[in-house]
Amino acid sequence: MNKSLLISGAGGQGIVSISTIIANIFMLSGKFVSLCPCYGAEMRGGAVNCEINMSDSEILCPQNDEVDFVVALNQTSFDKFINKVKENGTIIVNSSLAKINKTRDDIKYIFAPLTQEALKLGNIKTTNSIALGILSKLLGNLSIDNVKKAYEKILKDKKELIQKNIEAYLLGYNYIQEGN
Amino acid sequence: MSEKTLLKGNIAIAQAALKCGCSCYFGYPITPQTEIGEYLSLKMQESGLGYVCAESEIGAINMALGASSTGAKVMASSSSCAVSLMQEALSYACSDELPIVLVNVMRAGPGQGYIYPSQGDYNQSVTGGGNGDYRIIVLSPSNVQECIDLTYRAFYLARKYRNPVIILLDGLLGQMSEAVEFDDNKYDEINCSNWTLEGAKNRPSRKIHSLEPSSNKLNNHIKKMFEKYSIIKEKEADWEEYLTDDANIIVTAFSTMSRQAKALCNYYRRKGLKMGLFRPKTLWPFPQKRLAELSKKADLIIDIEMNMGQMLKDVELSVLGNSKIEFIGKPVGDFMKIDELVSRTDEILRRTDVSLSHS
């Protein structure tokens, strides 16, 4: 199995963190994985994106013109990466910060008000984990044990955030219902 | 083997250096290699090792020379335009026969260029930018695991041959994370106590210098250096081959570009073409003999680089007319993807008449 993902948003939205967690989950599942970050010279607020590739064999193309899944956490990244989704691929859009607008009919759109859901959970910084939950549901086959292990590893210095993020992850995971 | 961890190329090199016993690091921040210094600044201070964020790259590399002369295991790191500033010191280090590991995580040039990746420093590393006759061993990893393995090797070779070693990788690999394992360092510890300067109590004094007013002495010194270089050429050339056994089309590429080149081989194998990859892991010494052998059986060599054709010269010098050579390149920016490589290869195959008939 090969899967390519692009996670995008603004600096400060936890794009690199969540990408690292996804890459760790794949690694813990015994897959080959590559993670290429791309960010400008800005700190908070600039555009950030990470491409993650997962495979059963050595990853030969860590950067691709098109990917299976795009996650866009704001309007800028939605506009920028909508054309990076493969035919029959999926884009997950944070509709709290991007307008619902379907310009392509060859891909699947999932609009979810991620920022609002994160605020309801009491921590806006869990926006990225809700997105990961949705993504996990679509990818299938990710063991919750590995998800927990990845969070524990990446947030080992911020232990108080682990539980909240896993809660956010599960919220995202259950966001799309079966057959939807 | 330790458990797998996800690391970016830069951090992998820094951790591997510490595992080698690197006791002094000198650098100055520059994208895309800053994480090396950032990581070591913390770890080396914690362990009481020597870490200096120098006032400039010229300062950093000259401090590396000084520390190396005392027998310390020394590493410096930088990127492209800043490695240019270090060329004078590298020439000195070769003449002084000082073991130094220098990491160059390449960004775009010429001049200031920008922070996006490139492979434009092949010539600078392999042929050198300093004065006089000298050679630098150049190792080039293609994935994060190799960043570790070749860092181990770099420290070993530097001390074994008393010569600077450059680890040359592109910015993409420096920034990219992959799952890696830290093997034990399998290389022997080299005893340097017969030449280091750490105080002459109870022994005759020694000196390390490149200045030599006697032309006889300087000639002999350089001849001795070149005897050493011929041993390195003979013994240390290293490379990877992929599907070359029956290949009549050989693709050559180094560092990260070689991975897309492998994907290209897979693509044409599925179409029935016998394509294989030859990737030098040592850029100097370039594995000339083996490529020459392979080229005798080949109809076509396609060299692929993220520059305007720098390794191409070494490919040509190895192939020496045994087969046709074509070049696919792009100087800077996003690495060429498989679609672009296929369309440019298709064009070459049409033009050179090395076609599907070989299948």
Provide the fold topology:
The complex is a heterodimer of chains A (180) and B (359).
Chain A: E1 2-10, H1 15-28, E2 32-39, E3 47-55, E4 67-72, H2 75-81, E5 85-94, E6 108-112, H3 114-121, H4 127-139, H5 144-154, H6 162-173
Parallel strand pairs in A: 1-4, 4-5, 5-6
Antiparallel strand pairs in A: 1-3, 2-3
Helix pairs in contact in A: 1-5, 3-4, 4-6
Chain B: E1 5-8, H1 9-19, E2 24-27, H2 34-46, E3 50-53, H3 57-69, E4 74-78, H4 80-84, H5 87-96, E5 101-108, E6 114-117, H6 122-127, E7 137-139, H7 144-161, E8 165-170, H8 171-175, E9 177-180, H9 215-236, E10 239-242, E11 249-252, H10 257-270, E12 275-280, E13 282-284, H11 288-297, E14 300-305, H12 311-319, E15 324-329, H13 338-352
Mean pLDDT of chain A: 93
The number of distinct structural domains of chain B comes to 2
The rounded distance between the terminal residues' Cα atoms of chain B is: 42 Å
Task: Write down how many β-strands of chain B occur, each being a DSSP E stretch of 2 or more residues.
Answer: 15
Sheet with the most strands: spatial strand order of chain A = 2-3-1-4-5-6
Gyration radius over CA of chain B: 21 Å
State the assembly state of the protein chains: heterodimer
Number of helices of chain A: 6
Largest sheet features of chain A: 6 strands, mixed
CATH H level of chain A: which superfamily?
A: Pyruvate-ferredoxin oxidoreductase, PFOR, domain III
Shape of chain B: globular
Major sheet size, sense and barrel closure of chain B: 8 strands, mixed
Q: Report the total helices of chain B.
A: 13
Q: What portion of residues of chain B belong to β-strands?
A: 15-25%
CATH architectural designation of the largest domain in chain B: 3-Layer(aba) Sandwich
Poorly predicted regions of chain A are none
What does this entry look like structurally?
- The complex is a heterodimer of chains A (180) and B (359).
- Chain A has helices at 15-28, 75-81, 114-121, 127-139, 144-154, 162-173; strands spanning 2-10, 32-39, 47-55, 67-72, 85-94, 108-112.
- With 180 residues, chain A is α/β, with parallel strands linked by helices.
- In chain A, strands 2-3-1-4-5-6 form a 6-stranded mixed sheet, sandwiched between helices.
- In chain A, strand 4, helix 2 and strand 5 form a beta-alpha-beta unit.
- Chain B starts with a strand and ends in a 7-residue tail after the last helix.
- By secondary structure, chain B is of the alpha/beta class.
- Chains A and B meet through helix 1 and strand 2 of A and strand 9 and helix 10 of B.
